[in-house]
Amino acid sequence: MSTVLETFDKWKHFLADRVEQAKKAGMGEDTISKLAFQIGEFLDDKVDPKNPEERLLKELWDVGNEEERKTMSKLMVKLVENTT
Predict the structure, then answer these.
(1) Alpha-carbon gap, residue 36 to 32, rounded angstroms
(2) Based on the structure, what is the number of domains in the chain?
(3) Residue 29 falls within a domain, yes or no?
(4) Does residue 1 lie within any of the structural domains?
């Protein structure tokens, strides 16, 4: 995953591909958002941001409460859906 996180564009394309795969597998928006939240929790705990965009997302994630983090997850999914 480290090469995926080198640039924010690579991360967005990686996430967009995974969202598209999830949709093709029959997952709904709610499930996809929950998975995005779990990925965010994992990244926050285990991965050091590799670029300024990821650093900003981490800082926002760290100051947000659970509901705000869920909103961020949904917004990331929307972002990559609109850039593909």
Answers:
(1) 6
(2) 1
(3) yes
(4) no
Distance (Å, whole) CA 39 – CA 33: 10
30-38: average pLDDT: 91
Residue 1 has pLDDT above 60, yes or no: no
SS3 16: helix
**pTM exceeds cut of 0.85:** no
Measured at the alpha carbon of residue 34, what is the angle toward residues 40 and 17, in degrees to the nearest 5? 70
Q: Which CATH number belongs to the domain containing residue 20 in this structure?
A: 1.10.760.20
Paired tokens of 21: 């795969």
Whether 3 is in a domain gets the answer: no
Q: How crowded is the C-beta side of 9, counted as CA atoms within 13 Å?
A: 0
Is residue 19's pLDDT more than 70?
yes
- What is the token pair recorded at 80? 């990559």
Asked whether residue 41 is assigned to any structural domain, the reply reads yes
Task: Answer yes or no: is pLDDT of 47 > 90.
Answer: no
Q: What is the mean pLDDT of residues 11-36?
A: 90
